[in-house]
């Protein structure tokens, strides 16, 4: 079979009229340049893969500079397919995909979208958790220490209360892999947060709101659970991996930079997800149980934080959504089996010195303020 | 009079884009799937495939362009680019972790300098790689620019732009385009960029204010003006001293229809339709560009050196990281 086409010799852009003949061992190209005719042979093995052809079929041959032919004839392509069935230069994974078109591709597109969504919803958090859990404790502690020092720079630490809080913590019977270091900072903000590696910052404002030391125990238990289960590290790796994913998808690099540079404040405002919060609540309750304290302390803490007036939207609550739900869960966990509880003079002593200047009178006025 | 006009018309060579949205969509969806399944490693091969398709469907005077780049070559660049990015980011990470402010500032400074140098290096690498892997009728393009010139042009332009509060930006863009385009060879023909910074400045000034006054509607005409400025100032010089010029006929109204259509496609397909917007955009732009003048399509002669697969190692500056 013979086809008409153009031959380019790879040295000049001049297209030479050519007759292309399909032979079993390859193509025979008879071309005509400046009224001189000549012939070249193309072995099938030397022809480059040729994809995405339309009405025009373009074939290239050999090493640089490549020769090429273009044939404007749909029959040429069919003849090639017949003559050189299975030859490497005719293979194209994409062409077979194109034949699938319509239904096949639509199904694939949808399943792909599903896959992507599944990866984002389950894959990324799972991977991030893995990374966070395998993070060496020693580095975590180093990182935590730096964040802790960095954060405290912006606050005034109350030394007396800090000593009392640390005393309280050492008196508590805990089961932690981390030595705990806590600080009470002077601020009216009702807030407290855990830093990876065993550090905790409690604001004076939240201590002022509390009336019973069991509430403090519940709060501390909650934060310790965050530390023990590496919640902040997990949340950090999670948000980092989302930023990275987004930056890969959209080619934006500033997102990752923002998280990295700003990690201290990012950590402060990290939103743990609901399941992590509930886990911390549950383990905080467990701490009360272990120390034989009144379990109602946890519920009281929640209720007290929930009744903050609208104007001073309590930071602790605003970053921990669904207080109502959490109280419900806590009540379910406490359940009917009333656990006997004891007074704990050791803890109470530290609690008193932590409250120090705020005598009972102070908390009375606080309650009056709240009910008003 | 009539004869000269006719003669001129005879010399017009047009660009065409014959790619179809559905075909390109099929290619991109396969690319995307394989990239996801291989956790991103397939990306260079995917990029090679889509470039091969887009080049093959772009024709000048009825002959398509060919992209010779391969996934393997791009993978090397991809890994290098990744390495550079990781080292740059580790600087930021160190800066964030360091307790001494001096060290922090030092690392942030190193990061900024690194990014500033990375951009011209990547531009240079991209020009070298893309041109050497592009051919038309068997004739390869090439890039003769020096890396040091590119870096100097970029850094000087960048700082002048900062010092003049952005005013120099228009001249900077033109300088950069001159650096890139003037060094392109197309066989024995070469390209020239003849745009003027002052013209671009006026286009930007007018575009900015009119866009504000018309609540953004003028933006599409602004885009059209920019497109015309970039395309219409490209001149192709041939060996015998003859030259021809690119001309783009896109109207502001067409840009508006294209942009609004693309936005709707992306929104309603949740991003799946992005390949369709690519083919729509290319077909509007390419189909409206002609080359008018004395371009002799038969007179190009191969001038590029042969490259073989071992050469990509020496193309260490090839970093296709999507800066452009």
UniProtKB/TrEMBL annotation, chain A:
Co-factor: note: Binds 1 zinc ion per subunit.
Family, as annotated: Belongs to the peptidase M48 family.
Origin superkingdom: Bacteria
Source organism: Pontibacter aquaedesilientis
Annotated spans, Disordered: 340-372
Protein name as it appears in the record: M48 family metallopeptidase
Composition skew (Basic and acidic residues), residue ranges: 340-355
Keywords: Hydrolase, Membrane, Metal-binding, Metalloprotease, Protease, Transmembrane, Transmembrane helix, Zinc
Cofactors: Zn(2+)
Residues annotated as transmembrane: 100-124
Domain Peptidase M48: 177-333
Residue ranges, compositional bias (Polar residues): 363-372
UniProtKB/TrEMBL annotation, chain B:
Membrane-spanning intervals of the chain: 24-46, 75-96, 102-123, 151-174, 200-221, 255-276
Keywords: Membrane, Transmembrane, Transmembrane helix
UniProt keyword Signal, yes or no: no
Domain of life of the organism encoding this protein: Bacteria
Keyword Membrane: yes
Protein name: DUF898 domain-containing protein
Organism: Pontibacter aquaedesilientis
